[in-house]
Model the fold of this input.
Amino acid sequence: MNWRIGGVGGSDQLSVISGQLPGRGRQGRGGDAVRAFTLLEVMIAMAIFFVAIFAILGLVSQNLRVARGLKLGEVDFSTVAAELALTNKLEEGSMSGDFGDAYPGASWTTEVSLYSSNGLYQADIAISWPQNGLTKAQQTTILLYRPDSVLRSSVIRR
Done:
């Protein structure tokens, strides 16, 4: 390979008389240099790309897990107890229902019975809801004083 340094007007130029250009690349059809990436550079770029993609996918899956956890928490029986407390008169027996769009899939049942002959009633509230493929349940008992309620039963629970 022959190299010639120098040029017209004192400018320093490097020109190739024969062979390849200095650095990467090879000559194309018209004598132009064709520059390309080496296999090592392509592999390093792909490794950096995949590390970034997997990091982003990890963040997305973590955010989805957190969002699923916020979607439906434990259902509180206080809404059912508040609904019972709003009534002036209680009737013995059972009632059931659901929570609508607030807790999809959740349901409640209430068993109301006379606790004492002076108008004190016992309400057993049971709620159940789906969570992570399992059905969770919670049960509680409240006492409500409703002297204006009609007494149907002579059996008193204690």
